[in-house]
Amino acid sequence: MVEATRILLVDDDPDLRELCSQILMNAGYAVDPVGDGEAALSQLEARSYELGLFDWHLPGLAGRSLLEAVGWRWPELPIVIMTGYSDEDKAVVAVEYAQAYLRKPFEKQQLLDTVGRVIHRMSAMRSGDFPSPGRPQASDADRGSEPTVQTRQAGAVEINPLRCEARIGDSPAVALTATEYAVLNHLFVHPGEVVPHKALARLLSNRPLSAKEAAALCKHHIRALRAKLEPDPARPIYIKTVWGQGYRLLPDGN
Length: 254
Prior knowledge:
Blueprint: E1 6-10, H1 14-26, E2 30-34, H2 37-46, E3 51-55, H3 63-73, E4 79-83, H4 88-94, E5 100-103, H5 108-128, E6 152-154, E7 157-160, E8 165-168, E9 174-175, H6 178-188, E10 195-196, H7 197-204, H8 211-229, E11 239-242, E12 246-249
Parallel strand pairs: 1-2, 1-3, 3-4, 4-5
Antiparallel strand pairs: 6-7, 7-8, 8-9, 10-12, 11-12
């Protein structure tokens, strides 16, 4: 008996997660549904999948950060992104590490057509030994072995999306929680810019927050990041507060 194609479905909306799971299972797929990025990485560690179906906006590890972690560790896994973006340019950014995207809300047949098309295309590429488009490819020497650690650096700040680690200067790398990494990564990709409280809060909460709630939530995670990364957390020089607005990362310090 041929084993069903297995899909990892990641969405923090339980209703949509259940609906998509039922649609895919009724079509003959095996589906493992999870609600956040950390759970997705745990599932990928535990078993093999033929496709990942990921929501772009998740609490904690999400979006580009999640795709980078998955892309470097499991480069052969095709990804379909589910996104609520209405802006075509933003949708293109969402699939930098993916093969396709579904714009919410989507119809049942759109889901099945997109999933089927990506799985068929990737299967044909593998059988024909063609490279998968848009994703980092492991070399022959690396296949089946521990992946090369990939880091990103700006000034004195270095982050590692695979290991969820970061370091500043010559200090040892420290492990971050998924939410801490999500916050730091968002600041990292906007160096020197003021990132508003609400922009950061969207990474941390799946419900809209008031300005006061967003500021309080961000403050907690920024304090944790400073404790791990700043030479003197009481006098931060890299992760700066912009009073009444948000935070910004100064990769070279003051």
